[in-house]
Amino acid sequence: LLVACCWVCIVAEKSPPIGISSKPPLWNATWTDHLKHDLLLNYDKFARPAQNTVTIVKMKLIIKHVEVDESKSMVTVNAWTQLSWTDDKLKWNKSDYGELSKINVADHEIWQPDVVLLNSAQGNSIDHYGNTHCVLNSTGDVVWIPPSQFFIFCDINMRHWPWDTQECTMEFGSLTYQEDEISLQVENESKAALMINLDPCEWEVKSAEALPVLECCPETRNMLRIRLVLTRKTPAYNGLVITPAAACIVMLLSVFWLPPNSCEKFLLIGVTLVIITLFMIYFAQRLPVFAQHIPLVVDFYVFILALVCISLVTTVISTNLSRNKKTRPLPRLLSNFLGSQTASILLLPTFKMQRMSVSSEQDSEELHERNLVSDIIQEIIEPADSCSNCTHDWTLIAIAIDRLMFLIYIIIFSFMGIILYLI
Length: 423
What we know:
Blueprint: H1 2-14, H2 31-40, E1 55-69, E2 74-86, E3 102-105, E4 115-117, E5 134-137, E6 141-144, E7 147-153, E8 165-174, E9 182-186, E10 193-195, E11 203-210, E12 223-232, H3 235-255, H4 264-286, H5 296-323, H6 332-337, H7 340-345, H8 349-369, H9 373-381, H10 390-422
Parallel strand pairs: 1-9, 1-10
Antiparallel strand pairs: 1-2, 2-6, 2-7, 3-5, 4-8, 5-6, 8-12, 11-12
């Protein structure tokens, strides 16, 4: 009986009271919970975690996407910003917390350096960073990699568009801390930013280097200046700009090889004018109007437009020379100009042979009939018959004008191509 009573008492002590669940507790504190509780207890996130030393903040950009707005002279940089510093108040002994070497905390729970873009194009906002967790190490080192978006004013030089290279400077600094409190540095001065091609991008970051600090100006000593060199990717522009320009040049040169009285010459000139006009409209919509430097491509199309207008004038002249029937012979100056050397250069052997045959016939007639008065009277009465080849000769003059313009245009386009290549 005594044994039975003892057993009942033991069971009653171990059994839970009536109305209370016998399930285990839902919350089990881990080493991370204990560590965060101990670290953040009485932690002031608005106070710099150093007393008599300078907090070194290292910065690095991992650029994802770059967009250039030429009309606003503004560059948008989407990147991951890596900031790292040492917080003396966030150190712990790993052996006291289950060999825990690092933990993650929210970015708003600990102190952060107020590093902002000083030359930002958004004057009403300095919130460049997104919300991500910070990684704390047992040595007090903190690493924070938030997604970032920066808007920068940049002096856009459109002279070599669309094969241009732009240089922009990003100036980072602290708004509240002095140079003896925070020292902003980069991990690698020659490579302050990395470019990873995650998104389709028109621009490529050729280099990103940290510029030296200006010791003369106290306000720039606590400033980090990163120079970005951006190069435009131009595979699409090669077909969009170069191919139509080459087509316009070929059509313009082809005009001078058509017959002088051909209507297709005016058709080719009209098509070339329409193409150049459409491209001028495209340039006016694509490029900023207030740009200080006019692109060389625009100058090239403007110059081609002027050459097309000149070719239109010469085409009208050559057409009038070839279509109308001429009764007057060529002046001696033109006959001498289209001599043997000039005719061979202009590929006009017909003119030389014609003039030689006509002159030989006239010499034979003068030898046999120079004393006949009837022939002289007939030449005076019918001057048109004495110049039966005048229309043909004037047509050759029109062809010679076209060939001369062809040679001049070839020299002009070659000279322009060399200049554009050297520039």
